[in-house]
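Exercise 7 asks you to align residues with C-alpha coordinates for two separate proteins.
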Amino acid sequence: MSKSAASGPSQRMLRVGEQVRHALSEVLQRGEIIDPLIETTVISISEVRMSPDLKIATAFVSPLGAKDPDAVVEALNKHAKFVRGRISHALRQMRSIPEARFRLDTSYDNFAKINELLKSPEVARDLGDDDEKDE
Protein backbone atom coordinates (compact mmCIF):
# COMPACT_ATOMS: atom_id res chain seq x y z
CA MET A 1 0.00 0.00 0.00
CA SER A 2 1.38 3.40 -0.95
CA LYS A 3 1.99 6.08 1.62
CA SER A 4 -0.81 8.33 0.30
CA ALA A 5 -3.36 5.48 0.30
CA ALA A 6 -2.49 4.57 3.89
CA SER A 7 -2.69 8.12 5.22
CA GLY A 8 -5.76 9.25 3.26
CA PRO A 9 -6.15 12.08 0.77
CA SER A 10 -3.61 14.89 0.71
CA GLN A 11 -4.54 18.48 1.50
CA ARG A 12 -4.24 19.28 -2.19
CA MET A 13 -6.63 16.46 -3.14
CA LEU A 14 -9.14 17.71 -0.57
CA ARG A 15 -8.83 21.34 -1.70
CA VAL A 16 -9.19 20.49 -5.41
CA GLY A 17 -12.08 18.14 -4.63
CA GLU A 18 -13.92 20.97 -2.91
CA GLN A 19 -13.27 23.30 -5.88
CA VAL A 20 -14.62 20.67 -8.27
CA ARG A 21 -17.67 20.14 -6.04
CA HIS A 22 -18.47 23.86 -6.19
CA ALA A 23 -17.98 23.96 -9.97
CA LEU A 24 -20.23 20.91 -10.48
CA SER A 25 -22.89 22.40 -8.20
CA GLU A 26 -22.91 25.61 -10.24
CA VAL A 27 -23.37 23.69 -13.49
CA LEU A 28 -26.32 21.81 -11.99
CA GLN A 29 -27.85 24.95 -10.48
CA ARG A 30 -27.70 26.84 -13.76
CA GLY A 31 -29.47 23.97 -15.53
CA GLU A 32 -26.83 23.71 -18.24
CA ILE A 33 -27.32 19.99 -18.80
CA ILE A 34 -30.13 19.36 -21.28
CA ASP A 35 -31.66 16.12 -20.02
CA PRO A 36 -35.27 15.81 -18.79
CA LEU A 37 -34.28 13.52 -15.92
CA ILE A 38 -31.56 15.86 -14.65
CA GLU A 39 -33.60 19.02 -15.24
CA THR A 40 -36.51 17.75 -13.13
CA THR A 41 -34.41 16.42 -10.23
CA VAL A 42 -32.79 18.28 -7.38
CA ILE A 43 -29.28 16.85 -7.13
CA SER A 44 -27.07 17.30 -4.07
CA ILE A 45 -23.31 16.75 -4.37
CA SER A 46 -22.10 15.67 -0.94
CA GLU A 47 -18.45 15.02 -1.74
CA VAL A 48 -15.93 14.91 -4.57
CA ARG A 49 -12.93 12.60 -4.17
CA MET A 50 -9.93 13.26 -6.36
CA SER A 51 -7.50 10.63 -7.60
CA PRO A 52 -3.90 11.16 -6.40
CA ASP A 53 -2.90 12.52 -9.84
CA LEU A 54 -5.95 14.87 -9.83
CA LYS A 55 -7.11 13.52 -13.21
CA ILE A 56 -10.31 11.83 -11.99
CA ALA A 57 -13.00 13.46 -9.86
CA THR A 58 -15.56 11.07 -8.37
CA ALA A 59 -18.64 13.02 -7.32
CA PHE A 60 -21.02 11.42 -4.81
CA VAL A 61 -24.53 12.63 -5.59
CA SER A 62 -27.95 12.32 -3.98
CA PRO A 63 -30.88 12.78 -6.36
CA LEU A 64 -33.48 14.14 -3.93
CA GLY A 65 -36.98 12.78 -4.46
CA ALA A 66 -36.03 10.80 -7.56
CA LYS A 67 -38.02 7.64 -8.26
CA ASP A 68 -34.95 5.99 -9.78
CA PRO A 69 -31.71 7.48 -8.36
CA ASP A 70 -29.58 5.09 -10.42
CA ALA A 71 -31.09 6.45 -13.64
CA VAL A 72 -30.16 10.00 -12.58
CA VAL A 73 -26.57 8.94 -11.89
CA GLU A 74 -26.47 7.14 -15.26
CA ALA A 75 -27.72 10.32 -16.98
CA LEU A 76 -25.04 12.40 -15.24
CA ASN A 77 -22.34 9.96 -16.35
CA LYS A 78 -23.71 10.11 -19.91
CA HIS A 79 -23.15 13.90 -19.87
CA ALA A 80 -19.78 13.73 -18.06
CA LYS A 81 -17.76 15.06 -21.03
CA PHE A 82 -20.09 18.04 -21.40
CA VAL A 83 -19.87 18.70 -17.65
CA ARG A 84 -16.07 18.54 -17.83
CA GLY A 85 -16.10 21.27 -20.47
CA ARG A 86 -18.48 23.43 -18.41
CA ILE A 87 -16.36 23.23 -15.22
CA SER A 88 -13.13 24.02 -17.05
CA HIS A 89 -13.63 27.78 -16.67
CA ALA A 90 -13.94 27.51 -12.87
CA LEU A 91 -10.84 25.28 -12.72
CA ARG A 92 -8.65 27.18 -15.18
CA GLN A 93 -5.78 27.31 -12.67
CA MET A 94 -5.39 23.53 -12.94
CA ARG A 95 -2.90 21.97 -15.33
CA SER A 96 -5.57 19.59 -16.65
CA ILE A 97 -9.32 19.43 -16.05
CA PRO A 98 -10.31 16.22 -14.25
CA GLU A 99 -12.62 13.62 -15.76
CA ALA A 100 -15.93 13.67 -13.87
CA ARG A 101 -17.46 10.42 -12.64
CA PHE A 102 -20.72 10.29 -10.74
CA ARG A 103 -21.63 7.75 -8.05
CA LEU A 104 -24.72 7.41 -5.90
CA ASP A 105 -24.08 8.63 -2.35
CA THR A 106 -25.29 5.97 0.08
CA SER A 107 -23.88 7.57 3.23
CA TYR A 108 -27.30 8.94 4.25
CA ASP A 109 -28.85 5.49 3.85
CA ASN A 110 -26.06 4.00 5.96
CA PHE A 111 -26.62 6.67 8.62
CA ALA A 112 -30.35 5.86 8.71
CA LYS A 113 -29.65 2.13 9.10
CA ILE A 114 -27.19 2.73 11.94
CA ASN A 115 -29.62 5.13 13.60
CA GLU A 116 -32.42 2.54 13.43
CA LEU A 117 -30.10 -0.10 14.90
CA LEU A 118 -29.17 2.18 17.78
CA LYS A 119 -32.84 2.81 18.50
CA SER A 120 -33.76 -0.88 18.47
CA PRO A 121 -34.83 -2.35 21.85
CA GLU A 122 -32.00 -4.93 21.83
CA VAL A 123 -29.27 -2.30 21.48
CA ALA A 124 -30.97 0.09 23.91
CA ARG A 125 -31.13 -2.74 26.47
CA ASP A 126 -27.44 -3.53 25.97
CA LEU A 127 -26.47 0.12 26.25
CA GLY A 128 -28.56 0.43 29.41
CA ASP A 129 -26.69 -2.52 31.00
CA ASP A 130 -23.35 -0.80 30.44
CA ASP A 131 -24.57 2.36 32.13
CA GLU A 132 -25.69 0.41 35.21
CA LYS A 133 -22.30 -1.36 35.51
CA ASP A 134 -20.44 1.98 35.47
CA GLU A 135 -22.40 3.28 38.49
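Second protein for Exercise 7:
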Amino acid sequence: MARKPSPRNTAAPDSLSGSDLIDERLASLPDWRGETLARIRTLIKQADPGVTEEIKWRKPSNPAGVPVWSHGGILCTGETYKDKVKLTFAKGAALEDPAGLFNASLDGNTRRAIDLREGDKLKAAAFKALIREAVALNTG
Protein backbone atom coordinates (compact mmCIF):
# COMPACT_ATOMS: atom_id res chain seq x y z
CA MET A 1 0.00 0.00 0.00
CA ALA A 2 1.40 3.42 -0.95
CA ARG A 3 2.01 5.86 1.85
CA LYS A 4 0.10 9.10 1.71
CA PRO A 5 2.51 12.06 1.66
CA SER A 6 2.50 14.20 4.76
CA PRO A 7 0.80 17.59 4.36
CA ARG A 8 4.11 19.34 4.96
CA ASN A 9 5.59 17.67 1.86
CA THR A 10 2.67 18.23 -0.50
CA ALA A 11 3.21 21.94 -1.13
CA ALA A 12 5.54 22.86 -3.92
CA PRO A 13 8.66 24.64 -2.61
CA ASP A 14 7.71 27.73 -4.64
CA SER A 15 4.40 28.01 -2.76
CA LEU A 16 6.01 28.13 0.68
CA SER A 17 7.29 31.32 2.23
CA GLY A 18 10.96 31.69 3.07
CA SER A 19 10.08 31.39 6.75
CA ASP A 20 8.18 28.14 6.05
CA LEU A 21 11.17 26.76 4.16
CA ILE A 22 13.49 27.63 7.03
CA ASP A 23 11.03 25.92 9.40
CA GLU A 24 11.34 22.79 7.25
CA ARG A 25 15.14 23.06 7.21
CA LEU A 26 15.23 23.30 11.01
CA ALA A 27 12.87 20.33 11.33
CA SER A 28 15.24 18.29 9.17
CA LEU A 29 18.06 18.88 11.67
CA PRO A 30 16.87 17.20 14.90
CA ASP A 31 20.21 17.59 16.65
CA TRP A 32 22.39 20.36 18.08
CA ARG A 33 22.77 21.97 14.63
CA GLY A 34 19.02 22.52 14.32
CA GLU A 35 18.86 23.90 17.86
CA THR A 36 21.79 26.22 17.16
CA LEU A 37 20.34 27.47 13.88
CA ALA A 38 16.94 28.01 15.54
CA ARG A 39 18.58 30.08 18.30
CA ILE A 40 20.48 32.12 15.70
CA ARG A 41 17.25 32.71 13.81
CA THR A 42 15.59 34.00 17.00
CA LEU A 43 18.48 36.38 17.66
CA ILE A 44 18.38 37.70 14.09
CA LYS A 45 14.63 38.37 14.32
CA GLN A 46 15.09 40.09 17.68
CA ALA A 47 17.84 42.30 16.27
CA ASP A 48 15.91 43.09 13.07
CA PRO A 49 12.15 42.46 13.16
CA GLY A 50 12.01 43.53 9.48
CA VAL A 51 14.38 40.82 8.30
CA THR A 52 13.44 38.76 5.23
CA GLU A 53 13.94 35.00 5.43
CA GLU A 54 14.50 32.80 2.42
CA ILE A 55 16.19 29.67 1.20
CA LYS A 56 18.77 29.97 -1.58
CA TRP A 57 21.17 27.76 -3.48
CA ARG A 58 19.13 24.56 -3.66
CA LYS A 59 20.99 21.88 -5.60
CA PRO A 60 21.07 18.08 -5.80
CA SER A 61 23.82 17.85 -3.18
CA ASN A 62 21.85 20.18 -0.85
CA PRO A 63 18.16 20.02 -1.80
CA ALA A 64 17.11 21.85 1.39
CA GLY A 65 19.21 24.86 0.38
CA VAL A 66 20.76 27.45 2.66
CA PRO A 67 18.82 29.71 5.04
CA VAL A 68 19.43 33.37 4.20
CA TRP A 69 18.49 36.49 6.16
CA SER A 70 18.30 39.77 4.25
CA HIS A 71 17.45 43.42 4.75
CA GLY A 72 18.47 45.69 1.91
CA GLY A 73 20.75 42.84 0.78
CA ILE A 74 22.04 39.66 2.37
CA LEU A 75 22.92 39.99 6.05
CA CYS A 76 24.05 36.43 6.67
CA THR A 77 23.57 32.81 5.70
CA GLY A 78 23.27 29.79 7.99
CA GLU A 79 24.94 26.72 6.56
CA THR A 80 25.06 23.44 8.42
CA TYR A 81 27.86 20.93 8.19
CA LYS A 82 28.46 17.68 10.03
CA ASP A 83 30.64 19.37 12.65
CA LYS A 84 29.52 23.02 12.64
CA VAL A 85 26.99 25.70 11.86
CA LYS A 86 28.56 28.43 9.72
CA LEU A 87 27.11 31.94 9.79
CA THR A 88 28.57 33.89 6.88
CA PHE A 89 28.09 37.64 6.80
CA ALA A 90 28.00 38.87 3.20
CA LYS A 91 29.78 42.15 4.07
CA GLY A 92 31.45 40.96 7.25
CA ALA A 93 34.84 42.49 6.46
CA ALA A 94 33.21 45.93 6.63
CA LEU A 95 31.69 45.32 10.08
CA GLU A 96 33.22 46.18 13.42
CA ASP A 97 33.57 43.08 15.59
CA PRO A 98 34.76 44.27 19.00
CA ALA A 99 33.60 41.03 20.66
CA GLY A 100 35.68 38.92 18.24
CA LEU A 101 32.81 36.75 17.06
CA PHE A 102 34.23 36.24 13.57
CA ASN A 103 36.48 33.17 13.61
CA ALA A 104 36.42 31.95 9.98
CA SER A 105 36.91 33.30 6.46
CA LEU A 106 39.09 36.05 7.92
CA ASP A 107 41.40 36.42 4.92
CA GLY A 108 38.81 37.55 2.38
CA ASN A 109 38.10 41.12 1.40
CA THR A 110 34.33 40.89 1.74
CA ARG A 111 32.87 38.05 3.82
CA ARG A 112 33.48 36.98 7.39
CA ALA A 113 32.03 33.97 9.19
CA ILE A 114 31.29 32.59 12.61
CA ASP A 115 31.77 28.84 12.95
CA LEU A 116 29.86 27.30 15.85
CA ARG A 117 30.60 23.77 16.95
CA GLU A 118 28.57 21.62 19.31
CA GLY A 119 28.61 23.18 22.79
CA ASP A 120 29.84 26.60 21.63
CA LYS A 121 28.10 29.58 23.19
CA LEU A 122 27.41 32.68 21.11
CA LYS A 123 27.40 36.08 22.80
CA ALA A 124 23.81 37.08 22.04
CA ALA A 125 24.19 40.84 22.55
CA ALA A 126 27.32 41.00 20.40
CA PHE A 127 25.69 38.90 17.66
CA LYS A 128 22.60 41.11 17.59
CA ALA A 129 24.86 44.17 17.37
CA LEU A 130 26.53 42.61 14.30
CA ILE A 131 23.13 42.02 12.71
CA ARG A 132 22.05 45.62 13.36
CA GLU A 133 25.36 46.89 11.96
CA ALA A 134 24.92 44.73 8.85
CA VAL A 135 21.41 46.14 8.35
CA ALA A 136 22.75 49.70 8.70
CA LEU A 137 25.49 48.96 6.17
CA ASN A 138 22.97 47.52 3.68
CA THR A 139 20.44 50.29 4.07
CA GLY A 140 22.69 53.29 4.75
